[in-house]
Amino acid sequence: MTAQDHDLGASGATGQGGTGESAPCPVSHDRSDDRASAPMVEGDDGMEDALALVGRRSPTSPGRQEPSAPGRDALRGRRRGMPWDEARAVASRAGRAGVLRTQRDPLAASLGRVLATPLTAFVDLPSFDTSAMDGWAVAGPGPWTVMSGDGGLLAGREEAGTLADGTAVRIATGARVPPGATAVIRSEHARTDSGHLHAQRRVLHGQDIRPRGQECRSGDRLLAEGTLVTPAVLGLAAAAGYDELLTVLRPTVEVLVLGDELLTEGLPHDGLIRDALGPMIAPWLRALGADVTGTRRVGDDADALQRAVTESAADLVITTGGTAAGPVDHVHPVLRKAGAELLVDGVAVRPGHPMLLARLAPGRHLVGLPGNPLAAVSGLLTLAEPLLRRRSGQATPAPYRASLRDEIHGHPQDTRLVPVVYRGDKVVPLHYRGPAMLRGIAAAHGLAVVPPGGGRPGDELEILDLTWPPSSEGCFT
Ligand SMILES: Nc1nc2c(c(=O)[nH]1)N[C@H]1C(S)=C(S)[C@@H](COP(=O)(O)OP(=O)(O)OC[C@H]3O[C@@H](n4cnc5c(N)ncnc54)[C@H](O)[C@@H]3O)O[C@H]1N2
Ligand code: MOO
User: Fold this and answer.
1) pLDDT digits (tens, 9 = 90+) for 237-262
2) Phi, psi (rounded to 5 degrees) for 49
3) Which residues line ligand 1 (CB under 6 A)?
4) Which GO terms describe its cellular component (predicted)?
5) What topology does CATH give the domain 103-123+217-248?
6) Would you say the CB of residue 353 lies under 6 angstroms from ligand 2?
7) Burial category of 16 from C-beta neighbours within 10 Å (exposed 0-12, middle 13-18, buried 19 and up)
8) Domain 130-210 has CATH 3.90.1150.10
């Protein structure tokens, strides 16, 4: 694996609490000063950081930096990647390439998939005039003669006869309102006296009656195709008369975890570290709309990787690690050997720039996530998310933006993805956002998309939402 040591940050933490929010930054100041006083901050741009630390940053580049002069990058021997937006568009197009597989299933099995056809009401809702309250159905002006009976009108019972003018009958919430009734009076708003009902408030015509078709008419389009089937959608579908739904099957994904240095349990020791991506990537993929068929550990064995990639039946193969140029970084050579077409080979985003997207076969793709854990998250949201969104039939939402509270230093040319939390109507960047760190993202509500040059307080930045669904299954976003 490639040696990489540019996650400054954990040492010298100044103890701002668990999430490590950035302190407010009222004045623009040089990042090298940040480093000296608070080495816990970002540290994700190798050379940039090194320059800042040794104080060789140009004095003209505090805070928001202009893109650097052409040729500067070449001097550093860096390869520029595809712009972040473009890479996402390529991934989205790749997700459109396959045919969407649809299946009709009972409601419960459709949760977390996407509607393949619009949800159209089979019935009027409500499908009869219904009482909204427990009380009395009355006809005409009061006082009313109370119709005696066996406890009144209940939900789900047979239809009652016509209520004559000047009469009242007890009625339960959800019961059919009898023909002739002009209003329902809540039990707490009326009293009975010698067989007569007296209203204690003014009675309005039609009050507390839900008229047939109030919510929808049979044939109305309730939800568009492409809508994610959430628990609320299941409820609405049932209410509208559905037993089954036609949904798009979730694309299948297999995860291949590379790296001989990874332990699956216990404490890190002797240069070995815990595999942080195995436990993280599969559930995250499920939340993005994928059906994860398995997570396999492949180690640093090129032949094993070759076999795993070519033999996988999944729509999408995700690899972690091995994307860079180290002696055991096998992803590129294996893709070459497999005759894959590289659609994205590096993205101008920090962290995560060595991420890649390849077409293995028509409708089958591979996303190579960098091994550094936050860089892997960046790859997941930059390439896997748009591909899976399309491949699972979900519509692309308009980008969500929020106002930045504190300054975020930018990369001169690349987009940065920075973990943030919401505080009121602002987003606040978190510390511990180096490419090897998960401490920031684990506490984050979203990832701010910081354009080259950085973000200043008040800037409206695109936010990639990380809000987790309340379901422990984590199968829909
Ligand atoms: N000569 C260059 N070296 C590197 C470059 C570069 O452009 N030129 N890019 C650096 C960047 S940026 C990143 S990110 C990494 C990406 O490297 P790989 O995708 O090849 O990943 P590895 O080398 O396999 O691992 C990097 C790092 O991450 C740790 N790792 C890997 N897998 C896991 C895991 N499942 N759980 C926890 N940690 C993991 C691994 O031990 C390494 O420390 O390359 C840089 N180098
Ligand atoms: O900074 Mo690398 O971009 O750690 O992914």
Assistant:
1) 999 999 999 999 999 999 999 999 99
2) -65, -45
3) 1-2, 4, 257, 259, 261-262, 273, 275-277, 320-326, 329, 351, 353-354, 370-373, 375, 435
4) cytosol
5) Molybdopterin biosynthesis moea protein, domain 2 (3.90.105)
6) yes
7) middle
8) no
